[in-house]
Every structure is written in structure tokens, then in C-alpha cells.
Amino acid sequence: MTGWVAGDIIDQQGRTLVVTGANSGLGAEATKALARAGANVILACRDVEKGRAVAEPLGERAKVRRLDLADLASVREFAESIDSVDVLVNNAGVMGVPLRRTVDGFEMQIGTNQFGHFALTALLLGKVRERVVTMASIMHRIGTIELDDLNWEHRKYRRWPAYGQSKLANLLFTYELQRRLAASGSKVKALASHPGYAATNLQSHTETVQGRLLSLANPVIAQSAEMGALPMLYAATVPDAGGGSYVGPSSMFETRGYPKVVESNGKAHDETVARQLWSLSEQLTGVNFDFGG
């Protein structure tokens, strides 16, 4: 018996979705599925040429716009170009990269995965009609939020704990966003998803032996990018998906399978840390949320 698949997406005619990182991997697969279901999709990509290669076969439903989440000026410019959107899908990310800094001086993984999407969501929230979906990871379980050193300036950099921190931050952000939306009386919902272990190009960017081994192992042990995109698509399109839900694969310890609502670890539900991370994210990005209250 099969579970929910892309063919189960309800008619998306008249809806507009922004998908970050839509030029490859999970974002590209999600974009194709959404366009096939009738949605208008804005591909928010750092690599515009790769984005156009994905968009061109999809016709008028797909539009490409430049967005570099590692540059807050680019985030602001992109947000200003958007008039309205039904769903914002915060999909783009970097994983396990060597120590690098964003244009604004943040460690690359927390800067891209958390601060870039935090700022983008804040700048677009007043234009979002329905929901915000943010991509997390099963690797959030190895993460710890170090509020005194989010940017790895005072401790030895370790790429995988840094990635885990950024993905834990994505979940803390999602749950806190949902609480604040609900408290404001907004009908907009915040959800998170994760792809399990899916074959994408992220592994090839780690510049490590582990990354090369993962890339070689992908065809054998990873599920396809099409399957990996299903939790994100479920969170973005299923009408009764609840605010604060976390959607991931259903089998093999959430590494593969059809989408279902899953659980994150206790650290992701620490409301005190979530509030502190939120305040620090506003302080470091210089971008504040307005819930209309």
C-alpha cells in the first residue's frame, strides 16, 4: 500500500508559491510537482541560470528571481520584488561545509539556513496568505544552540555540529513563529519538514571524504530527490496540515518513505531558547517581524 505522493497534490490553480533553492535537488523536484498541479512558482535561486534550466520546461507557471540567502541585501531586494504569495517554502540550505562566512559575517550554515530564511520570512510575512514551510533535518538531533557563539567565533569550528545547530534553529524558529502567529490571530500557519536521507547535491559540497563517500552511496542507500521532496510538498499543500506540524518520511527511522507528521526532539520545543534565538536573530539581521498587533 502506497502513501501520499505528488500526484495527490490538490489543484493548485490560482496559488503562488515561493521556493528557495529551487534550481536543484529537492527544491527543483518540488517546483516541478507544484507546477504540474497548476501552481505559479517563483524559483528563488542564487544560481539564476540553473534556475532557468528548471523553469523553462514548466512554461509560464515558473518564474526565476535571484536570491542569495548569504547576503541580507539580496534578501531585502528579493522580498521587495514580491507582491503577494500563498506559501513561502524555505527550502534552500548548505550542509557540512568548511568554515566560511556570509557577506554579513555569519558562519555560512547558520547564516544561510537560519538567518537568511528568518530575514526573508520577516520581510515577506505581511504578503503571505496561507503558510510558511521551513526545511529542517533529522540532523537537528545532533544540534545545540550556543547563543553566546552562534557564529563559531570563539570555539573550534566543527562543520557537522554547526549544521545540526542550524537545523535545530530552523525548528525552534518554526514553532516560535507558529506561536506568535496564533497569538496575533493570524490565519497564516508555520510548518516544518525534512526529507530523510535523499539523494541531492548537498553531499558533494562538503569537500570532505565523508561527502564523497555519501555521494557514492547515494544510489544505493538514499531515496530519490522526488521522494525526499514529498514531506515539503505535503506541508505546503495539504489543506488540513496543522500549524506547528513537522512532516518527514515514515520509514527506516525517518530516513525514507512516504510523508507523515513526525516528532522533533525536546531541544526543538524549548520555548525559552526559542524566544532567545528569535531576539538574537532579529538583532543580528536587523530585521524585525510585524504581526500587526
Layout of secondary structure:
Blueprint: E1 16-20, H1 25-36, E2 40-45, H2 48-55, E3 62-66, H3 72-80, E4 85-90, H4 108-124, E5 128-135, H5 159-184, E6 189-193, H6 209-221, H7 225-228, H8 230-237, E7 246-251, E8 256-261, H9 271-285
Parallel strand pairs: 1-2, 1-4, 2-3, 4-5, 5-6, 6-7
Antiparallel strand pairs: 7-8
Explain this structure.
By secondary structure, the protein is an alpha/beta fold. The protein is globular and about 50 Å long. The protein has helices spanning 25-36, 48-55, 72-80, 108-124, 159-184, 209-221, 225-228, 230-237, 271-285; strands at residues 16-20, 40-45, 62-66, 85-90, 128-135, 189-193, 246-251, 256-261. The protein starts with 15 loop residues before the first strand and ends in an 8-residue tail after the last helix. Helix 1 (25-36) links the parallel strand 1 and strand 2 (40-45). 38% of the residues lie in helices and 16% in strands. Helix 3 runs parallel beside helix 4 and helix 4 packs across helix 9. The mean pLDDT is 93. The protein has a single domain (7-282), classed as NAD(P)-binding Rossmann-like Domain (Rossmann fold), CATH 3.40.50. It contains nine helices and eight strands. Strands 3-2-1-4-5-6-7-8 form an eight-stranded mixed β-sheet, with helices on both faces.
